[in-house]
Amino acid sequence: MRMCLWLALLLPAILLPGCGGAGESPAAPSVTAEALCGQWQLYIEDTGRNAPAVKQPVTFTLLADGSFLCRLAESTPEETKGTWRLEGDKVTLTGVRQPSVVYEYREDQGPTLRHRAFDREFFPRGVTMILKRE
Predict the structure, then answer these.
(1) By the 8 A CB rule, do 72 and 49 touch?
(2) Domain range holding 76?
(3) How buried is residue 21: exposed, middle or buried, by Cβ count under 10 Å (0-12/13-18/19+)?
C-alpha cells in the first residue's frame, strides 16, 4: 500500500534525477498555475522496456494556495500534504517530510507532469513518473 506513495514522493528524489536530453522535449508550453490546479493521477512507466504506463492508486490534488494533497486509495487510504510551485514549465512538489521533486509540464500527450529518474541497479534505463489530468 505504502509502496505507491513512496514511489510518488520519495523515489524520484533519491534516484539520480533525469534531466531532459537532446531531442526529448519540444519547446516548453506556456502554462499557468491556475491551469494546474485540480486532480492528477499517477502513472509509472519503465522507460527502458517501452511498456505502457501503469496507473497507480495515487492522486495529487494541486490547490490554488500552493499546497497539494496526495492520496493513496488502497484498502487503507492514506493522505499526505505538501506544497507546489510553478517556474516556467517546471512544477516542484515538496512533501512535508519528503525532499522536493521537479516535474516537467508537457502537452504532447495531453496535459502531463513528468519526472524521469535513473537507478543503476533497479532502473538502469530509467523510470518515468507521470501525473495525468483525469
Answers:
(1) no
(2) 2-17+30-133
(3) exposed
